[in-house]
# Entry
Amino acid sequence: MITNVEGKRVLVRVDYNVPLNEHFEITDTTRIDRSLPTLRKLLEMGGSLILMAHFGRPQKKRKEDGSIDKTRFTLKHVVPYLSQKLDVQVTFINDCIGENALRATQNMSPGEVILLENTRFYKEEKDGDLEFAAKLSKHGDIYINDAFGAAHRAHASTATVARFFKKENRSFGLLMEAEMDNAQKVMKSPARPCVAIFGGAKVSDKIQLISRFMDFADTIVIGGGMSYTFFKYKEGNIGNSLCEDSHIELAGDLLDKASDYNVEFILPEDSVIADDFKPNANTKIVDSMNIPDGWMGLDVGPMAIQKIKKAIEGAGTIIWNGPLGVFEMEAFAHGSMEIAKAIAQCNAYSLVGGGDSVAAVKASGVSDQISFISTGGGAMLEFLEGKKLPGIQAIEAEDQ
Ligand code: AMP
# Structure
């Protein structure tokens, strides 16, 4: 990260897309907490900070009259918590461009912190609009991108804005650096054996990821809704379990690739099934290849958990993305909780990424025993898939 910031105005793109309850109170402060080391360091070094971020989807969720819901989507909600954590009264500006905003950021004293309003109040943000980005860039002498969770978006504040800063005046923040270092550690030189655990709803979302991990993982574990597309390929009876018919052949290709690459491929041999997608549905445990009609697999079963735990215990590196069951309902959370605890207890280096698996780790109370928890859902997936993220490319690009 750039350290020469004394007396400079530092425009920092942070990821403050935090969940709120109906009283607009923050229910999970992780994203703000993870931005603090960068902000504190910049303040210590004598910079003033202008923070910009997006919040929710204000363009999609407009009010009935078509206007933006500024009460719900304002970033003002984060000001009290952020001020308390930084021990500085953060000044909130109710616009991110415009004369008022610009005036406020022109003459700042070292140690001052300004938070700009939600960049997505302007549709130009998502378009990556050049003119809009130029206006944003006027707020700072230096641009720092620390919003890993938004780095896979080619938006104005995450990517385009970087063009208006010379290479020596733009850099990643400490969180972005840590996210990239940790993901690279897994991909480049994992301690062996490397065990990758993938869950979640859809195989179509994770095909590229699974395929890429064949190159360097020793064991791949599949759980969650997507495992049933594999069982369907194997001609099992999957009842009403989630299945993507258009991806059955691709699931077969992945199984073939695993065998060609000598990668151990673990599918959950048993499942907790339910007669309805409801928390209080009737449940039983059955062989995942033999799910009766009218029933659906909603969690991994006890034999599967034992097998996955065994793989975890012997691992040198573990990466986990996606819950192994419908963990939002207690009756189907057991598999994900057990796996979270097993990862926390083992000696391996562990990286957990993806909003839902992070939530599962938190719910099981073992977050502090995981080596690195990524703040990026989609961004981490794309980074691990080997894609170039626009937010990263924009910082690394040569001057234009
Ligand atoms: P993803 O965003 O693809 O990581 O998927 C996360 C979602 O997958 C969570 O909301 C889980 O409830 C859901 N999920 C996990 N296992 C299953 C399953 N067996 N059937 C249906 N949905 C599932």
In short: Residues 199-202, 205, 224-225, 242, 297-298, 322-323, 325-326, 328, 354, 356 surround adenosine monophosphate (CB under 6 Å). The longest strand covers residues 9-13. The radius of gyration is 23 Å.
